[in-house]
Amino acid sequence: METYSWMREFADSWMLLALTLFFLGVIVWAFRPGSRETHLETANIPFRNDTTGPLDGADGTDPKGGHYQIGDAK
C-alpha cells in the first residue's frame, strides 16, 4: 500500500473518529454544570478596571449611574 492511500484511509476512518470525539469532549466541557460562573468571570476581564460603565446616554453620560458587568439584570 502506498503512503498516500494509507494516509487517506487513516484520515477517513480513525482521524475522523478521533476529531469527532475531541469536538464532543470540548462541547461537554464548555457546557458542564458549574461553568457559568467561570465563563461570566472570564467575559468580564476587559471591564475589571473600568470605573465609568457604558455610555448609553445621548449626551455621553451613564444613565445607569453605576458599573455594569455582563450578567447584570437590566
Automatic annotation (TrEMBL):
Region (Disordered): 42-74
Upper classification of the organism: Bacteria, Pseudomonadati, Pseudomonadota, Alphaproteobacteria, Rhodobacterales
Organism: Sulfitobacter mediterraneus
UniProt xrefs under InterPro entries: Cbb3-typ_cyt_oxidase_comp
Highest taxon of source: Bacteria
Protein name, per record: Cytochrome oxidase
Pfam families xref list: FixQ (PF05545)
